[in-house]
Records
---
Amino acid sequence: MLNRRNFIKGGLQVAAYAQLGPQLFSAPSARTAAADERILVVLQLTGGNDGIGTLLPTGQDAWYRARPTLSRVAEGAHELESGFALHPSLGGLSQAFGEGRAAAVHSVGYENPDRSHFRSMEIWHTGLVPAVTRGESPAKGGLGWLGRAAVQLAGRHRTEPTAVHIGSGPTPLSLRTPDAQAPSLSRVEDLRLEGLDDDERARLALLAQARSARPGSDLRFLRDTARQAADLSDRLDAAANRSSAADWPATDLGRRLQLTATLITGGLGASIYGLEHGSFDTHLDQGPTHANLLLDLDRCLSAFHAELAAAGMADRVLLYAFSEFGRRVAENGTAGTDHGAAGPVLLFGPRVRPGLHGTPPDLTRLQQGDLPSTTDFRAIHAALEHHWLGLPLRPDLPAPLATLLT
Amino acid sequence: MSARLDELLSPLASDAFDASAAEHLLTRVEFGATPERVAEACEAGLKPTVAGLLEGAAAPFDDSAQTDLIALGRLDLAQAWWLGRLAGEGGCSVLRERLTLIWHGLFATSQAKVQDLALMLRQNSTQRELALAPFPQLVRAMLVDPSMLVWLDGDQNRVGRPNENLARELFELFALGIGNYTERDVLEAARALSGWTVSGRAARCRERWFDGAPKTIFDETRNFDVDALVDATTSQPACARFVAGRLAREFVHPNPETDRVEALADLLRATEWDLGRCLSQLLRSEWFFAESNLRARIASPVEWSSRARRQLGGGPARLARAQAASRMGQDLFQPPSVKGWDGHRAWIGAATWIERERAALRWARDPSTPAAFADVERADLPAAVFARLLPERPRPEWAAALERDLDALSRDEALRTLVAATLCSPEYQLV
C-alpha cells in the first residue's frame, strides 16, 4: 500500500524536483539555515500610502497651504530632523529611529509616474519602468524582482521554499517566476488537510507527479503548486510550533506579521517574505482611516521587533515597506487625497544607516501637482538585493543606493 | 463586415461538432454538463445548441428571492443563493448568470466598503437585467448605480470639490484600459460625473452640485454629463477592443490572440453592441473550438463548484459550497479590489490549492454523490467516474496507479477515492 512518507523517501518526489532545475523551490535539503543567512521582509502598503501624510514636511509652509484639513496631524507628530516629523500614530517607529533601527528614503519613485494603482504596482513589482516598457504592461512576461532574487537564492542555499507570501490573496507579481510561484498562506491552518490517513495523502500526492507536463504549461504549474503545498504543510507544522514573546495587535497585519515572525524564528528557512497592509487608498476623509492604518502598522512593527529580539534573531531580519505611489500634494474636496507620484520608503531592522536619506521634497516644486521622484526605487531594490541578500549586481538596474545600509 | 473578420471568426464545420466539442462548449458556457446533456447537444447540432443557450439567456428571469435575502441581511446567504443560480438550480439560465458574474468581475464592487446588502443585490440584479444589453447601457447603469457611487466615492464628487476615483476606474478598468486616455481626461471626466448622491438607497444628480462648465474629454470640449461621457467613452475605438478582450479571456483563452480580439471588437462595433449576436458567432467559431483553446483556462472557484454540481448533481449544501468558494479565493460580492479577480493562475496558490483538495473531499464524502453512480458495477467505477468528470480527454497518467490501489477498498471507499482524486487533480482544474 502506498504511504506518503515512503512515497517521498522512495525518491519519486525528489526526482520530480530535480526536473524543475534551479527554480524558486529547490530540492528539500537536510541542511538547516546558517546563522548568517539574512531575511528580507517586504511589506506593501497597498492603495497608495500618503507619503507626506506619513513623513510630514512640517517645516514647509506649502504643506500647510496645500492641506488645510490634513495638516492637523502636525499636532502630536514625532519630530525627526530638519523639518520632518512622523505621523502621530508612529510612536514606536519614532523610537526605532532614535535607537538607530529605522531609516526612510524621501521621494522614491520613477520617471513618468503612472497614477493607476495596478500599473504602478506592476512597475514596482517588476522593476520595469515606463522608459523600458514603452506603454506595454510590465506584467506580460515580466519577472517579479523578489521572484528573481528567490531563484538565485534557491540555487545558492538549497533550502525550500526560498520565498513565501503571507496573505489571503493571490501571490503578488513581485514574487512570481515563470514556472513556479511562492506559496501563499495567511494562517498555518490554511495548509493543514484534516481527516486524511496516510494512504489518502499518498493518493493525493500521486496526482501531482510531474511526468509529461511541459515546463511552463498550466498543467505543470498546477502539479508543482499541489506538490509544494503538501510539502510546505509538513514543514510548517514543525516551524510554527513556537509560542509568541510579543504583544501582537489582533489585526490582519498583526496575525500575518506574527506568522512571519513565527516562521522565521521556527526555522522555516525562507529568505524572503512578502506581505500587504491596507488599503491606503484614502480618497475620502483620510484623517481617521490613515491614522488607524499607521497605528496598526506601528504596533505591528514594534511587536515584530520584540518577537525577533526575544529569539535573538533581530540582526538577521530587515523589513522594507513601500507603496505603489504617494498621493497628490493638495488635498481633494472630500478631505482626502487622490493618486500622486513619489513617496517615501521605510527600512526597519539591523544595518540600516538610521535617519532620512535622499533629497528632501520641496513642496513648491511640483510636477502636475505631484512630488517628482528624486530616488529611483530600483536603486533601493538593488541595495537590498546586493548589500543585504548578497546577490550579484545587476547590470540592467541603476547602481544600489550605497548609503542605505552599513 | 470585412473579409478579414469573416475569416478570423469563421464558423466551425458542422461535422466537426462532436462530443468533445459539445463538452467544450457546455463547459465554457454552462460550467459543465452530464454525459447525457453532451449527447443531447451533439445530436441537436452546434447551431441549434448555441441558439438554445442564447434564447435561455435572453428569457425573462425571476430574482425576486432577493427581497427575502435583503430582509435576512446575510452576505453568506446571498452568496449561496447566487452560487445556486450559477449552477443552474431552479432551471435558470447559466449563461445569463455567467454573464452577470463577468460584469460583477468587471465592475468589481465590494460589500466590504459598501456595507449595504440591499445595494449590492440591486447592482447584481441590474447586471443580470443588462447581461446581454449593449455595453454603453451597462456602463451608464453602473456609473449611477448606488453601490458603485458609494464604492468609488462618486457620491462625494461635487463641483469645486472633485473626487476622481470613479472617473479614473471608468477609463482604466471598466471601459478602455491604460494607455487610452490622459490624466487630463480623468480630471475632466471627474467633473462630468459630479453632483451624484445616494440617499434613501436611490441615486440622483443634484443640479447645484453638478459642475456645469465646459470640459475637454478626448479632445472634445462641451458640457459633458454622465450620458455624454458614456457616449464619448464607449465610442472610443479602444472600448470595443477592451470588451472583446474581456469576452475572449472569459470564453476562449486567458491570453487571446490580438487579431482575433480585434475581429471580435469589429463585430461588436458592426452590430452596435449586439452581444447576443456576437456571442452566437464567437461560440460557433472555429477559433473557439481550436485545439489550443481546449482546457486552456484554470477554473475559478465558482466554475469549479458549479461544474461539479452540474456533473454530479447533489453535493454539499449551497451555503457550504459558497463558503468553500470564498476560501478558494472567490468571495462573491467581495472581490479583492476594484480590478476584480485576476483569474487563471492567480486562483492557485498553496493555501487555495489545499482548499480545493478539501472541497474535493467534501464532494466525495457527500451522501448524495454515490447516486450518480448507482447502477455502475464495481469493476466499471473508474471508467464511469472519468467519463462523467473528465470526459473526452486522455486518461491521466496517474489513473492506472490509482486503479491498482483501489483493490483493497470497499466499493464505497473506492468511489469516494476516485471522485476526490479526480476533482482535485491538476487535470480537472483545466476547463
---
Amino acid sequence: MQYVFLLHEDQAAWDALNEAEQAEGVAAHMAFVGALNEANAFNSGAPLGPAGQGKLVSADGIHDGPFADTKEQIGGFYMIEAANLDEAIDWAKKCPTAQYGRVEVREIPDYANG
Amino acid sequence: MAASKSGRFPITQTVDASDPVRASAEHTVREAYGRILALLVAGGSPIASAEDALSDALARALDRWPENGVPDKPEAWLLTTARHCLIDQARRTKTAAHHEPHLIQMIEEAEQRMQVQTEFPDERLKLLFVCAHPDIDPALQTPLMLQTVMGLNAQRIASAYLVQPSTMSQRLVRLKQSLKGSDIAFAIPERDQWASRLNAVLQAIYGAYNAGWDDHENASLADEARYLAELVCSLLPYEAEAAGLLSLILHCEARRPARRDKDERFIPLSEQDHALWDDGMIAMAERCLGLALRMGAIGRFQLEAALQSVHAARKVTGQTDWPAILAIYERLLTINPTLGARVGQAAAIGQGFAPKQGLAALAELPHDSVEHYQPYWATRAHLESKSGNIAEARDAYDIAIGLTADRSVREYLLMQLAKLGET
Amino acid sequence: MQFAILFYESADDFSARLDPARTDYWQGWASYSRSIGQSGKLVSGAALNGPEVGATLKSGTVQDGPYAETREQLGGFFIVEANDMEEAMRIAARSPTAGTGAVEIRPVLPTTTSED
C-alpha cells in the first residue's frame, strides 16, 4: 500500500537556523530517504516553496496563500510503500520532521483492489 | 467588497447604503473618476501621478463631504483638489518647478470654466486610445483601460484574468512608469491609424466583457465593459463597429438571467427560457445594430451582433432561422476567421441541418489548434451524441470536462455524459 | 518548473467518493486527470484518504485527534510541470475542486537528489 507523509513545519523556525544547522536538517532528510530506499519503500518526495508564496484558486476567485492561517505549513511530502498503517507510522517516526514539526500520515486509496 | 488592498483607491466597489451622505459622495466620485483622471492626464501629468493625486483628492472628499455636505459642483471640487495635489507632489519631488506655472494656469482655466459650464468635455476617449497604443503590450491594454478609465483595482481585474493580483498590480505600475518616459502622445491618432486604434479599443473592451461573462461572482466586470462600450458609442456616434460592439454586448446581457437556473446550473442557449430574456435590452441592441448597419461599414462586431439578433428573434417566431445564421457566419469567417467562429459555424451547421455535417465541419479544423480548445470538444461531444456515435461522444465529453474551468458548465457536461450511459 | 497543486476538498466532496449516486465526482476527476496527463504536464499525483484513517506524529509520537479542524481537508495533490505560476494556476482552475473547495498552488523546490 502507498502512504503520503505531509510534513508540517514552521517556516519561520527554519529561516532562523544558521547555514550549518540548515545543512544538518537537509542531511537528516537525505539520510531518511537513503533508509527508505534501502528498504525499497521510497516512492517520491519533494520540498515545497514557502506557503506565503503560494496561490489559492476557489469559487471565490484567486487569493494569495497560504490556505490555512497556521504557524505550521506543509513544507514538503514523501510518498512511500508500506504493508499497513502501523508500518507507515514506524517510518514516519524516523522522519526528521516528526521531531521538530508534525508528520501527517495519509493513505493513498487503492481503488484497483476495491 | 473590501476597499482596494493597495490602499490607493479608497472607495468600496459597492455603495454603503447605511450612510447616505457617504454613499452619495462615493457615487459621485465613482461616476467622475474616469473623466477627472482623463483631464489630469490631458493637462500633461503622467497617469501614475494623476492617479495618486486623484486618490488623495478622493480621500479628502470622503473625509469632508459627509460632514460638510456634498459641494454644489462636486466634480469641479475634485478636479481642483487633485490639481492642487499634483502641485504639492511636484514641489515635493522638486523636479517640476517649470511645470508649476502650467499647472496653476490649468487650475485657473478650469475654475473659469466651472463658472461657465456644468459639463466637462469628455477626455476619456483619448485615454482609451492611449491605452490601446500599439506600443503597449496587448495583454495589458484592457487591464489598463479598466484601471484608468473605470477605476477598478488590481484585485478585481486580476481575478478575471486568472492572474495573481500582486502580479497584475506590478505590471500596471511598471507599464505606467514606462509610459512616463515614453513618446506615446496623448492625442487622437491620425486618420490612417484611426481604424486600427479604434479596433484595438473595441477588442480590448470585448476582451473585458468576455472575462466577466464566465465569472458569475464577478459579473460586474461585464458591467464595466458594457459601460465602456456605451461610452465609446456615445463619443463616436458615426463608428459602425462601436455600435456593433454595443449591440453584441447588450444582446448577450439580455440573456444573462436565463443562463443559470435558480440552483446555479448552466442552461445552454437552445434550452433557455426566453421569457427571462430582457426585452428592453434586446430592443436597445436592435436599435444599435440597425444604426450600425445603415452606416454601410460592415465589420466583425456588427456580424457577431447580427448572429445574436437572429437568436433573439426566437422569442418572437418560436424558432431559429438557421439559414440566416449560416449566411452571417460565412461573411464573418471571411473577415475574422477565428477558431471560435469556426467552431460556432460547425455548431450551427450541426444544429441547423445535420449533426454529421457539423462533425464534418469540425473535422476540417487543424488538430493542433483544437487539441486544448474546450468549445471544440463540447460541440463535438454534442454532435457525436446526436449522430449516435456514443463512444466518440463519451470520449469528447471526457476531454471537454477536463478542459472546463467553469463549475456549472463542468457539471452540465458531466450530466450529459452520464445520460449517454443510460441508453 | 514544477508546481504542487494541493486539492482541499469539502466534506461534500469526501462523501461523494463513497456515494454510488455521485458518479459525477469520479467522472470529473477522471476527465481532469486524463486532460492533464495528455498534456504531458503531469509529473505525479495521488488521491488521499481523509485524516480519520491516517495518523499524525509530533515529537516522535502518535497524537490523538485530527491534525486540523478546517472546513476543507487535503484530498489529493498533483505535481505538474509548468512554465510559470500562472500556467500552473490555469491548470489548477480546471480541477473539480476549484469549484467545490479550494486549490493551493506552490512551487516545488529543486532537490539535490532530483536528476530530471
